[in-house]
Amino acid sequence: MAIRLSGMTSGLDTDSIVKAMVSSYTTRKEKYQKAQTKLEWTQDAWKSLNTKVYSLYSNISNLRFSTAYNLKKTSVSDTTKATVKAGSGAPSGTQSLKIKQMAKAGYMTGAEIKADSEKTTLAQLGYTGGDAKLEVKMGDETKSITLTAASTMNDVVKELRNAGLDANYDSSYKRFYISSKKTGVANDFTITGSNIDGASALYSLGIAYGGEKTTTGAYSSNPYDEYAALHGASDDETRANIEAAVTSYNNLTTDAAKMNAQSKNLMNAVNYGYSYATLQDIYKKLDAKNAGYSDKLKLLEKLGSSRDGALISKNGDSYDTYTKTTLTDTNGNTLYKYIDSDNNSHYIAAVADTDKGTTSYYDVTESTRTAYTDADGKELEAAPTVVDDTTLKVGDKTYKKDEADGKYYLQKEDGTADKTDSITVSQKTEYTIAADAVNKTGIESASAAYDTIIKSMDEKTKSSYDEALASVQAFEASKDEVLGSDDKYSVASLTKAIQNAYAGNGKEAVEQLLAGNGNEADGFVNKANALEETAEANTKKAADSNIVKELASKQKDSSEYTQALNDLLGRVNTAYTLQNKALFNSQVKKVAGQDSEIELNGVKYTGDSNSYSINGLTIEALAETGDSAISITTSTDTQGVYDKVKDFLTEYNNIINEMTKLYNADSAGSYEPLTDDEKDQMSDKEIEKWETKIKDSLLRRDSTLGSVMTAMQTAMMSSVEIGGKKYSLSSFGISTLGFLNAAENEQNAYHIDGDEDDANTSGKTDKLMAAINDDPDTVMQFMQQLSTNLYSAIGDKMKSTDLSSAFTIYNDKQMKTEYTNYTKTIKEWEKKISDREDYYYNKFTQMESAMTKLNSTQSSISSYFS
Fold it and tell me: From CA 571, how far away is CA 565, in angstroms rounded?
């Protein structure tokens, strides 16, 4: 902006005069600034409210499903033995628990040595060897360590920790303390020497463990025995022993895997068998009421989610299925495809009569023709003239075929191809309804047919059907990864056995098959347990020879196998040498890693930790119970369900009360946002009070807010039908206080009769808790449907439109546009003000200049008379 120097000659307050002259422009600009400020405050108010509504919307999403209310509580008869938490899937009732064995970590207490500090070296302990090679083995993992005579106790601790162990050296007691980081057999450890120096170093460190010394002078757990046992009179004999161990290991692991798969199938088949029998009985009942329903239902079940958009029609004793395609006939009618037994495709066209609201179906005729398409993909109106196999003519234009891509390109006068103008030749398949085509009858929507059959079932049958069908389909769709289809207890063989049993003598025959036909040992569960025990025994036997595990995993004729065999040969030879030459510290003590073992309802479970998650229960074993059992009692957490409902209502009340307050706010009257000049005349407290008056009234009687409130209130007041009876919130003692009794702007909030935290209703009978105790399923179903209604109501208000974004209850897009427009308008008025100020200042400058000249002239004339 130019520097304005005015009024120096005239003595006028030009700035005040100009400001007054442009005041009408300034007033217009301030009007838009106030409107924009008010809009910004309104946006902030909506954003704050929208965040709370969206939070409610997100929270009630889970309340639509039964899992939100399947809350369980559990108690244990002896909490010193175990703690138990129940998940939503835990069955109600009392269960028996025995803790047979606690999981332990491997732990070693070293023998006392003469190391006065952590800085003592192996040499100071009397070690005189060279590089001491050690191996730390934990489960399937082996790590190597190298120590020297210069290695300190700290170095040893560091190396052991790097190998994955917890290790410390206590200079007060002059011992090493070493342990596994995790409990369980699989996490136990051994520390051995890979060479004579390694074995010697372990002895010097007091951690050479060989078990208890026997009367013969040998050690009970010589760590080198396992490898040394494979040693033969020659290397060839040793190799033969190793390969025999590999064969044994493979056989044991293969058999164990097969038995585990069989055991799993048998256990799953129990549920399948009962579900299959239940499903067949439901089919029979359906046919008794409506002949042929079961065959139709079985077809529709196989279609699954593809029922939507599919059609079916009766064809003798079976049904044909037509799937919707993206194809259309020459008139634009959608085509449906049917594949016959010879794998040939057939199509029908769906012709809709919009006036009558009906659809007719006709067979279509399939034909193929040559199509010519231009560079834009549009088919030519008239076919070109075919000159020869490589030339087409369209009028006076000649197109030549490019062998590289098969297209025909326009030929220029110089003989080159114009790549922007081309013709593509293709074969186009068309579908046409013949003039004499007959409307096909008996065709119906697959989804509609399925709904009709399902609706014919009563609620109890429908629930049994859904559960049984899911179990049957899951088992029949499962695939054996270890067993062949013809193997004993494969999915295929078990499915056939159960289906044959039902065909023979119905549900009773299936139950006898599963239970063992009178012989308990022949029952599926006992067979599964026996197989599992044998598989476990085989696994333990394999673990006893798992030193060949790595070799067993390699292809026998490969170079990797040969290398691994030679490496193992070297270790066996070393172990054989160390078996007799290695020294062991008789004072070292080792506690072996141990798996935990529990029995829940008579079924044994093992694990490498003391924590179990079984059928919805999370069990933490604390101490062994021996043969005595403790009881676990699980029941519906009625208080938890009550609190879930109460928390939901609390959140709803907070939001609906805030909405009501905003909607019923006092009018701000003529209050408008303050300009900077107006703020200068007021204190900070006065400004805050002024602006609060406006902000509190921004959503007063807002139609959008009123619409959202109405939708939420309508959803909450809706009734739900359960078992032929209608329920509402008032059925469970939940209602509003009404306009006369409620506090200001809280007339839409809900209160629970008997709620001890609510002074308004605490003295009333608690119908909600009584209903949860007497009939929790009804309460849960009601809350699910009520939550669904509210979720849908809010969701409808949060849909994206041209004026609002998704998950937004107000017109945020529109407000953003309005704010931008205000910014633009304000800048335009600022420009106008600046232009008018420049204009007036320029006029005053001219006046000042004229007055300066006049004064100069007068002064000159006066000088002549002086």
Answer: 10
